[in-house]
Input
Amino acid sequence: MDKKINFSINICCLNSEKYLNETIQSVINQSYKNWELILVDNGSDDNTHNIINNYVKKYKNIKSFNENKKGLSNARNLAVKNSSYEWIVLLDHDDIMHKDRLKIHCNDIRNNINKMFFFGDAMFFDNNNTKLYSRFDIARKKDNFDPVRLNLNKVDGYINLTKYGCFIVSSTVCFNKNIIKKIGWFNNKYKFILDYIFFLNVSKFYDFYCSNKIISRCRIHDDQSTNKLKKIYFIELNNLYFSFYFNTKISYSIKISIFIKNLRLIFSYIKTNTLYM
Output
């Protein structure tokens, strides 16, 4: 229980110059100091590479690697492979860590020694720094469930992730690197829902722990991949829902819930070309 916990924070970048400094600074400003930062530049053609190099030159615990636009899954896998520590922390290139995020992860890990996967709540905000909503508040008010109260033990966690969708924000996730040995790497067949697929695969074999604390701030802006890859996101998520219908481990009542979510996805995409998640 007294073993030092070290974190490898993974950030994958693609044309990230607008927000990357603020994201990296949120790592540097962590109250818990046992960390390294792994940055993967996935073929940026803006000033991202220079920003990363400036931090690498200044900080010994910041490292960088390059990919040539091979997709987020390959970038995530490269970051994990080059992570020195046991605990992997995900952070998107335009999001911000709460200053005590690593401290919260550390306490959660120590208090839940049998768990390998941890996540928490996230506050979404806009470019004016206006708070919009927390992910868990949306789940409670709009979708009538509370992520903190769900059974997230293995298998049950998988069922709840199919029934309620991906209520886990990637920029709040921390997992043990040894998970990869059991379930494999991030799947490069997916361009957008790869994190959701990874979470589903983990939930088949491992218990999850959900913190009720807001541990990251997630930026809503016009340049994010949600807006740029709407069609791909729609196709991938629609196909995933379709696969659930033929999964014998999922009950009929849950398949009805999935079908309703599927219809909402289709109608929202057709009507407004925006996606309901």
Notes: The chain has a mean pLDDT of 92. The chain has eleven helices and nine strands.
